[in-house]
Design brief:
By secondary structure, the protein is of the alpha+beta class. The protein has two domains: 47 residues; 107 residues, Sandwich (Ctag/Cox11 (Pfam 04442)), CATH 2.60.370.10.
Length: 196
Amino acid sequence: MTTPEPVETEESYKRYAKKINGLMLGKLMVIAVLMFGFGYGLVPLYKKICELTGSNVLSTQESSAATAVRNTQVDTSRYVTVEFDANAQGPWRFRPTVNSVRVHPGEMANVVYEVVNKEARAINAQAIPSYAPQEAASYFKKVECFCFKQQTLGPNEARQMPVAFYVDPNLPKNVTTITLSYTFFEVGLPAKTASN
């Protein structure tokens, strides 16, 4: 007489599958934790490698002022005094907030001009720069200036307008002072009527 082969029951198969799935989930969780730890540990390791190799891009180490990167375009061997002047041709008050600044050629500088519209109407205006001595004009480089475009001033509006500039290091050595003068005038004057 032969013995019948044991038949797995559905219940035992479910227990076996649950056990296998639990083990797989546990293994995946351990792998995920290890991967996160490895990724987290790479940051200080990478910083240390950068410090040792000198590429130091991500290092938070503070550099001293002596080793800081300097702008090599700045001529620190001399100073140029830049004086500011303002002329108003219209119903406003127009002036620089400082009379002069002392800069090294190649060094960026900022000044502010103030304008106040004294009329109860909006006015379109434009500023035109001039320089003294005249030869300095080609060495005076404006990066930002209210003179680049027309300004519309509202009724009784006050505004501060910046000028960012540098003096070209190739400025002749005999030029030690530059005067920047702006004339601020109204543009688009209304036409006069016959009764005026």
